[in-house]
Amino acid sequence: MWRLTRKTPHWLPATASPIFNALTPLNYCTSQTQNSVQEISHILAHKNWKFLMDSSDIPNKLNPDVIRSVIRHNRSVDPKRLLDFFIWSETKVGSFQNLEVLSILVVSLCNSGSYLPSRDVIDRMISIWKSPFDILGSIATCFREWDCSSPRPVVFDMLIDRYTKMGFFVEAVDVFLGLKSVEFTPSLISCNALLRELLRTNKMELFWKVYDRMLEMNIDSDVYTYSSVIDAHFRSGSVDGAKRVFLEMDENDCNPNVVTYNVMISGLCRAGLVDEAVGMKNSMVEKGLVPDKYTFVTLISGYCRKRKLEDARKVLIEMVHLGLKPDVVAYNPLIDSFVKQGNVEEAFRIKDEMVTHGIQIGLVNYNTLLNGICKAGLMDKAREIFDEMIRTGNRPDSRTYTSLIEGYFREHDTVSAFKLFDEMKKRNVAPTIVTYSVIINELCRGRKIDQANAFIEEMVSFGLKPNSIIYNTLISAHAKVGKLEEARGILDKMRQQGISPDVFCYNSLIIGLCRENKLEAARTCWDEMLARGLQPNAFTFGAFVQAYTNAGDMQMADKYFNEMLAYDLVSNDVMFAVLVDGHCKEGNLAEAFSAFTRMLERGILTDVRTYSVLINGLSRNGKMQEALRIFSELCDKGLTPDVYIYNSLISGLCKQGDVDKAIQLHDEMCIKGTNPNIVTYNVLIDGLCKAGDVEKAKNLFHGIGEKGFIPNSVTYATMIDGYCKSGNVAGAFQLLYEMPVKGVPADSFVYNALLDGCCKEGKLEEAKELFQDMLLKGFASTMSFNTMIDGLCKRNRLQEANHLLEDMSEKRILPDHVTYTTVINHHCKAQNMEEAKRLFLEMQSVNLTPSIVTFTSLLHGYNQTGNRFEVSALFEEMLAKGIEPDKVAYYVIIDAHCKEGNLAEALKLKDEMLKKGIPMSSGTCDALIQALCGEEEYVQALKFLNEIGEAGMTVSFATCSSIASGLQRDGNMDKAAEVLERMVSFGWITNTTCLDDLIAGSENIVNSEDSNNLIKELA
C-alpha cells in the first residue's frame, strides 16, 4: 500500500461550490487497445493472473489508456484484484495519476466493504489533487455510473474522515457542504465525528457551518450530536444557548447520557456557575445515571477556581464514598488553590493525604507545591521538597528550577539562585525562555544591565530567541537608569529580529523619556507607536500627563488627558490627582474644576472618590476656601465623606496653621460616623507641634490608645520632632526608648528627627552617639550626614565636618549639593577660601551641580576677604552655567562693584535685578547709597532713598546719616532736613529724632552693615 503525505494543501473557503464532472469521456482509440483490454480482462478472471501476465507480452501492451479502460471494463470484478492489477501495472509503466481510475477503485472498494485499502486510495487522491471539489465530483460521478441506490454511501463519509484525520479541516468541511450539491447525505456517525474533531481543534466557525448544514439536510441529532453542540455553545460563551439545547434534548426524546451531563457540568464550572453544576450532577443521579471520576474532578476544579475550597473538599469526600478513587488529577486543583491562597500548610496536608491513599506524588504536584512555597518565601522548605523529588524518582524539570530560582531572587539570595542555575545546566535540564526571563528581570531590577545583556547572549547561543517580555524588561531597565539611547536601540533591534514591539515596550521608553523631560523624543515614539497600529493605554497617556504637569505646561497635560478620555480609557485616581494637583499649583482652579466635572460625568471613579481627589488637590496647594466649598457641595448632595476626604482637609488646615478648625473638623467627622484613622491623628499631632502647642500634641498622642489606635512609627517620629523643635530633646529620647517596648520599630525618620534636634540644641556628643547608632542600624542616609555636618559646622568644628564628608564615600553614601554647600558656606564664613574652592571643584568632579546658595556663599566669602576679582569671575561662571542670580547674589556683586568704585556697573546691575522683578535687599540699598555718598553724589543718594522708601524697602540708620551729613557738609541743609522727613514718613524712625541726632550718627558708622545683613539672609 502507498505511504502518502500531502506536500502542499490548498486551503479553500468552507463554502459550497458547484461540483463539476471531473471525468473525461472514455474513447477507445484503436482496435489494438480494445483487443488488449479484452485479453487482460480474460486473464484477470484467473487466480494466477499475475503469473500469466508476467509470462505473456501483456506488460509491453500496457499504457495509460489500456489501464484506464481495463479498470472501467472490470468494475464488477473483485475490487481488491482490480486494485492489485492497478498496483502491478504501475510497477511496469510507472506511477499512474488518473482521478477517474482512482475514483472507480475507491467506490468499488467501499461498496464491497474493503475500507482499509479504500482509505489508502483516498489518501493518494488527497495527496495528488489539491481541490476537494475535484475529488468529490469525480467520486460522485463514478458512484452514479455504478448505479448504487444508497443515499448515504460510505465512500463520502470516508472522504470526509480522511481529510479530517490528515488535519485538513477546511477541505473536510468543503466536502461536507458540497454533498448537498451532488445530492448525497452524510451519515450521522460521519457528522458527529466531524463535529467532534472541529470542537477538539477549536474550529468554531467551521463547527457551526457543519451543524447548520445538518439542520438544512434534516439529519436527526443523537445524544453525541447534542453533547457536541452544548459544548460548542459553552466554548462560544453562550451559557444560555447550551442550556437551551440541553432542554431541547428532552423535547426531542433524546435522553442525556453521562457524557452530556459532564459537558454541561464542565461548561457551567468554566462559566463560574458551580452551584448550577452541582444541581446538574444531582439531576443526573435522580435520572439513574452514575457520575464518573471526570464529573467529580470537574466539580473540584470548579470550586477551586471559585476559591470555595471547603466545598471542593466535600466533593472529594463524596467521590471516595461512592467508591471512586481520586487520582493526581483530582488532588492537584486543591493543592494548587491552597498554595495560591498562601495556605501552604493545608497544601502539604493534602499531599500527605495522597501518600496515605497510595497515590504517587507526580512532577506536576511537586511543581505546584514548589511554586507556592517559593512565592511564600519558604526557601528552606522548598529545598527540602526539591530533595524529596529527587529521592522519589521525580526528575526536576525547567519549571521546577525556574520556581526555585525565582524564589531565591525574591528573597534577595542571588548566590543560591545562580548556584541553582548552574546545577540545572549540569543536570542537563535546559533553561527555558521563562528561566532566562526570571534571571534577566532580577538583574534589570538591580540595575545590573551588563550582566543582563550577557544572559541575553547566552540564551541566544542556546537557540532561544528573546521575546517581547524580555525585551520590554531590558528597555525599561535602560530607561530607568537614563540610558535612553540604548533603550531606543533595543526597540530597533526587536524590529530587525522580526519581533513586533508591543504597547508595553513603547510605554517603557516613553515613560523614561518623559521622566527625563525629553518630550519631543517621547512624542516621536508616540507617533511611531500609532503608525504601527498600537493603541496607547492609560499608562502611555499618564506618562505625558505627568511630564507636562511637572513642566508646568498644563495645556498639553489637559490635551493628553482629554485624548485619553476620547479613547474611552479609564483614568485612575493617581493620574486624575496629578492633573488636578498641577492645575491647583498653577492657580488654574477653573481647569481643575473642569477636569473634576468630566470625571464626575463619565463616572470613571465613584462620586466620593472623584470629590476626594479634587479636595486633596486643593488642600495640598493651600486652596482651603475652595476645598471647603467643594466639601460642602459633597455633603449637600447627600454623599458621605470618607476618612481620606477628612484627612485631606485636616492636613490642609494644619499646614495653614488653622489647627483649631482642623480639630473642629475631626470632631465633626466623629459625630457623623466617619471613623478617624491613625493618619488623622498623625496629621493633627504634626499640626499642633508646628503651631508650637506641643503640650496639646502630647495629650493627643497619649490619648490615641484610648481611641483604639496604636501609634505607629510616623506618630512617634512626628512627636519626637515636635519635642526636639521645642527644645525638649530629653522628652524625645524618652519616646525613642518607649518605642521598642510598645512594639513599634524606630525607623530612619525617627532617628533623623532626633539627630536634627540634638544638633540644633548644640548637644553634639549625644548627636554623635546617635549617629553612630544610625550607621550600625543602616539608617544613616545623605540627609543624616547633612544634619550632622551642619551641626558640626555651626559649632565651628570644620575639620570634623570635613572628615565626615570623606567618610560618606567609604560608607557608600553619596553626598549631594546640600552636603557640599553646607561645608563650603561655613568655610567661607571662616574665610578658609582655599578649602572652600577645593570643595567647590570636588563637588563638580562628582557630577554635582552647584546651586545658587553654593555660589552666593563663595561670592560672599571672596567679597568679605576683599578678593573682588574672584567675585566677578565667579559671578560670570554662575551665569555661564545657566544659574539665575537671586537677590543675595546681586547684593554681593553690587557691593563688590561699589567697593571697587564701579558705581556705573553697580547701578546697571541694580536696574537689571529690578527689571527681573527681584526685590533689593537692605544690604544692596545700603551698598549703593554708600557708594553714591563716596562719590559725593548726595542729591542722587537722596533721590534713590525716596525710591527705596516708596517701594516699601528699608535702609540702615547709618546709611541715612551718611546722606544727611554729606548734604550738611555741602551746605544743603534743606536737603539734609528732607532726609529726616523722608525717614519719618516711611516709618523708619519716630518724629522725636532730630536732624542733629541723624547727622551725629554718621560719626559712628562702621564701613557698612552689609555683612550682617547677608549673614542673616544666608542663615
Q: How would you classify the helix and strand content by structural class?
A: mainly alpha
Radius of gyration, CA atoms, in whole angstroms? 46 Å
CATH architectural grouping of the domain at 1-186: Alpha Horseshoe
The portion of residues assigned to helices is over 70%
| Multimeric state | single chain
Judging from the principal axes of the Cα atoms, what is the shape? elongated
What is the straight-line distance between the termini?
Answer: 102 Å
CATH class type of the domain at 1-186: Mainly Alpha
Count of DSSP helices? 58
Overall residue-averaged pLDDT value: 85
Organism: Parasponia andersonii (Sponia andersonii)
Family: Belongs to the PPR family. P subfamily.
GO molecular function, one term: mRNA binding
Protein name: Tetratricopeptide-like helical domain containing protein
Q: How does this structure look, described?
A:
GO terms for molecular function: mRNA binding. This is Tetratricopeptide-like helical domain containing protein. It comes from Parasponia andersonii (Sponia andersonii). Belongs to the PPR family. P subfamily. Among the domains are: 186 residues, Serine Threonine Protein Phosphatase 5, Tetratricopeptide repeat (Alpha Horseshoe), CATH 1.25.40; 131 residues, Alpha Horseshoe (Serine Threonine Protein Phosphatase 5, Tetratricopeptide repeat). The radius of gyration is 46 Å and the shape is elongated. The protein is mostly helical and 1019 residues long.
Chain-wise SSE layout:
Layout: H1 31-44, H2 49-55, H3 58-61, H4 64-73, H5 79-93, H6 99-111, H7 115-128, H8 132-145, H9 154-165, H10 169-178, H11 188-200, H12 204-216, H13 223-235, H14 239-251, H15 258-270, H16 274-286, H17 293-305, H18 309-321, H19 328-340, H20 344-356, H21 363-375, H22 379-391, H23 398-410, H24 414-426, H25 433-445, H26 449-461, H27 468-480, H28 484-496, H29 503-515, H30 519-531, H31 538-550, H32 554-566, H33 573-586, H34 589-602, H35 607-620, H36 624-636, H37 643-655, H38 659-671, H39 678-690, H40 694-703, H41 713-725, H42 729-741, H43 748-760, H44 764-777, H45 782-794, H46 798-810, H47 817-829, H48 833-845, H49 852-864, H50 868-880, H51 887-899, H52 903-915, H53 922-934, H54 938-950, H55 957-969, H56 973-985, H57 995-1000, H58 1010-1018
Helix pairs in contact: 1-4, 6-7, 6-8, 7-9, 9-10, 9-11, 10-12, 11-12, 11-13, 13-14, 13-15, 14-15, 15-16, 15-17, 16-17, 17-18, 17-19, 18-19, 19-20, 19-21, 20-21, 21-22, 21-23, 22-23, 23-24, 23-25, 25-26, 25-27, 27-28, 27-29, 28-29, 29-30, 29-31, 31-32, 31-33, 32-33, 33-34, 33-35, 34-35, 35-36, ...
